[in-house]
What does this fold into?
Amino acid sequence: MNEQLAILIQLQDVDSRSDVIAEKRRQFPLLVEAAAKPVEEAHAALAEVQGELDALNRDRRAKEQDLKEREERIDKLKTRSADLKTNKEYQTHLFEIELAQQEKGTVEERLLELMDRAEALQHTVREREAQIAARRSGYEAERARLQNEQNAMDAEAERLASESNTLADRLSPANHQSYEHLKATRKGVAVAALKNGTCQGCRLSLQPQLVADIRKNEKILACTYCHRILYSPPPALESQKT
Ligand SMILES: [Zn+2]
It folds into this structure.
């Protein structure tokens, strides 16, 4: 095989692997963000029930104050009993106390309901706090895993970059320039394989004579259509390439 062609094939392979890593590397912040989402949702769920509980406690304190005032009023009513002169006045007075006590009873019932509801909400708060803790530890583990993966990829990217430089240095200036130009203008693929007479860069079929020449891998030849540098992989390799 032509030595320069062999270098170009290796260089393309190294650079393509670099591109794949760079693309994956760009996904990391999104993956970390996605991993944090369940924790944020759990926080929102807690805030919701906490808000409900706060409102309920305000309502409860108001009802307790109301109850206290009603009790004071009933006590005051009772002390007036001595001032009453007629039986009719006394009956009216008793009726007034009875009514006030009934109203107080209604407030007490409502207060008990609020306390039951508060207890249920407290239980939900504890459940949601536990959910946050569980999700947070899941998130921390995932973030650490992603960080490790990222570090490994950074190391691999660095290694590939240095390999790419070493290979590029071995190219003639003309071949290097042509490679860089094609890579920049052909979506990162400057060197493509020939498979069944078809350029794997643009998927078009080439003239039989050109196909025959490329199969020899003796010269640097370009695709008639996309101008990518073409090579013919050995049969075993060809079956792996798509
Ligand atoms: Zn082509």
Remarks:
- Residues 173-240 form one domain.
- The CA atoms of residues 223 and 230 lie 6 Å apart.
- The two ends are 22 Å apart (CA to CA).
- The mean pLDDT is 95.
